[in-house]
Amino acid sequence: MKYTRITALTAIGVAATLSLTACGSDGSGKASSSKSSSSSSSSSSNGGSKSGGGSGSGRSQASNAKASSNEDTGAETSANGATKTGGKVTFCKTQDLAIDATDAAPDEASGRINITMINRGSTTCSATGFAGVDIKDTDNTSNPIERGPAQPRVTVLKPGDAAVFNLAYDIDNTGNSLSHPTNILVTPPNETHTVSLKWPANAGEIKGAYTDVQVYPTHTTK
User: Fold this and answer.
1) CATH level 2 (architecture), domain 94-220
2) Which of 83, 96, 93 is nearest to 188 (CA)?
3) Domain-by-domain residue ranges, the chain?
4) Helix locations, the chain, DSSP H
5) What is the pTM of this model?
6) pLDDT at 10
């Protein structure tokens, strides 16, 4: 009977141990599962944060690009608007100008050629500034003319109005001038298209070289 009782107690003890072990295993599993879930959640949160940051960055870049585009477009629109509606006028186009060159020497020592530009266009335009001028010689070379010491004046031309600028130089009365001009190549202020004018037949000969000739800014004839 004693042996049977010990055996029964031993069996109960083993069962209790197995029960405790099973409970510990379940608790450990739950903790592990909870930790794993927490880690997964944290990872997902971090991943979401990174993903969100990337998306936010992408939106920011897109926004910046759009803003930049709008700013550029706005500046262009503003500039165009100022030209069209702000009272400002565009520069005269070569194709809208009737250009001619005449001798206007005030005396026998001072050479001057007046170049007149008449606005034949249908809108008001600006001819303010220095025209580009080259003088072509009989040897077919073209020589750029330097600007004279003068400040440009505002020169606005309504349809039919005229602007003038001049070339100034000293006249060589010896008959030994080495300059033999045939044409004046004129590019109106702020233009790129050039016209070729005949050198006035009665203009005095140039003293020195073409580098001694100067071009002065435009002004109105009124």
Assistant:
1) Sandwich (2.60)
2) 93
3) 1-88, 94-220
4) 2-85
5) 0.61
6) 45
